[in-house]
Amino acid sequence: MSEQEKPGRPAHEVSDVSTETVVKFGLGLLTSMVAVFLLIWGLFHYFATREERRELPRSPMAAADQLPPEPRLQRSPGHESPPEREMKEMRAAQEAVLHSYGWVDRNAGIVRIPVEQAMQKLLEERLPVRTAQQPEDRKQ
Questions:
Q1: Does residue 3 fall inside a structural domain?
Q2: pTM over cut 0.85
């Protein structure tokens, strides 16, 4: 401990960053932010009062209680059926078609039969089977 620190000498590096410059920058940034805020607030106030002074007739499209045109989406005014119930009804109707007999085209003599019966009939008729083709030897 031959050398002791002399009083009055800074205990940090003074040549890298100037504290005064950082503080000036921060104050300048804060001042700029306040100025921009006031400018935007003034413009907003100006445009709002200018719009209030204009008295335009109300658009007919802004009428209240106007239903949207058909087809209306589910859960919208004028469409009271919940989508879950509609989905169940649609699936029940599709299942009824899949598992029943009926005409597809009476003039052409085309009928529909239940799916299970159609699959069984298809298996009984023995569909033609393709023979597996041998891959050709490829020379590289």
A1: no
A2: no
Number of domains in the chain: 2
- Amino acid sitting at position 102: G
* Domain membership flag for residue 76: no
| Cα 98 to Cα 120: distance, rounded to the nearest angstrom | 14
CA 43 to chain centre: 33
From 85, 61, 90, select the one nearest 74 (Cα to Cα): 85
Is 31 inside a domain boundary?
Answer: yes
The boundaries of the domain holding residue 116 are 83-125
- Is residue 79 a contact partner of residue 90, using CB atoms and an 8 Å limit? no
**For residues 114 and 99, what is the distance between their CA atoms, to the nearest angstrom?**
4
pLDDT in tens, 18-64: 889 999 999 999 999 999 999 999 999 999 999 888 877 777 767 66
Element (H, E) at 110: strand 110-112
* 3-state SS class at 11: coil
Among 43, 42, 24, 20, smallest CA distance to 32 is for 24
Quick check: is 112 in a domain? yes
